[in-house]
Amino acid sequence: MSSFWAITAATLAKDLRLEWRSKDAINSMLFFALLVVVIFSFSFDPTAEESRHIAGGLIWVAFLFAAVVALNQTWAREMRNAVLDAYRVSPAPANPLFLAKAFGNFIFVSIIQALMTPLFTVFYNLRPLGPAWQLIPVAILGSWALVVNGTFFAAMSLHTRSREIMLPILLFPFSIPALVAMVQATNTILTGQDSAKFWIVLLLTYDVVFTVACLLLFETVLDAE
Amino acid sequence: MAHPSLLYDELSAMENLRYFGRLYGIEGNHRCADAIRKVHLDPSLARPVGQYSQGMRQRMSLARALLHDPGILLLDEPFSNVDACSASEMVNLLGTIRDAGKTLFLVTHQAALLDGIADEFVLMGAGKIVSRTRERQIIEGAPR
Questions:
Q1: What tens digit of pLDDT does each residue of A77-105 get?
Q2: Where are the domains of chain B?
Q3: What residues in B contact A14, CB-CB < 8 Å?
Q4: Which CATH class is domain B13-108?
Q5: N or C: which end of chain A has fewer CB within 10 A?
């Protein structure tokens, strides 16, 4: 078990080092999310009250699309010089690779959220009327919901001819329940009209179910040609 | 050792081997540095592998394959895209590895480089074995 976590940590450290040197994923995600914030802000010019009702959807759609950019990059690195084959022929189990990739993507998405949240607040004049601390579990569980499925489906579409298109086609339908929960939870907290607990529990359940399913199926996906 | 390098271009030689070492349960830097020295490269070189010459990259690829001390080494075109000097250096290296008791199974279109190194030559054509000899045979139209 210790080697399981040692391989996970080594793979995560390697991915973070690669991203630190290239900044491919972070830059593309940041640029994309920034575009969404600025364009929507100028297109609709919403009042503070309107913003509270639409911000949840806007924020999470921006993060979902931005995450897809990072998800495509994460496996593309493993395809260059066929390094994924070096992993496959090693005695290392498949799941540490999956977990490291998912943790890595989670970190990238979290960085983007940390950078974009102040901008969203300024551009949309947001001030939560409900318990603001609840936005933290929503952000954590929501991000994990996006990246856990995204990492899995990105691996699945690795050997397809047009994987950039295949990933959203596979990912988005499965993300709808999580997306609804994230948007409803965020809107509920921003408007302060109701409790977000139901949506947070729904997100937690979604995360647990899909994390377990992805871990059970990843080895099959990795070995598939 | 495959045709692609199976290495991360953005990482240095040591960073690459440290990572692949972990996959085989190899801890620390000692064995990684040894494997790099075995292929006549410098473990302290901080330059990313992507900036290596093709010959250096092939040798690094061999170092990665040697890292976990396998009994048999499968080498696919180790002399491809390298100059004559690097190819001859690689041949000497393979000779040393063979003398250390490893079994090498090598696929190449430059069989002449292995004269005096290979114990057996198996010539293949259209997916079938054409000849199997102790000395390299020159056959009309076959790769030399």
A1: 888 888 999 999 899 999 999 999 999 99
A2: 13-108
A3: 8, 11, 15, 19
A4: alpha beta
A5: C
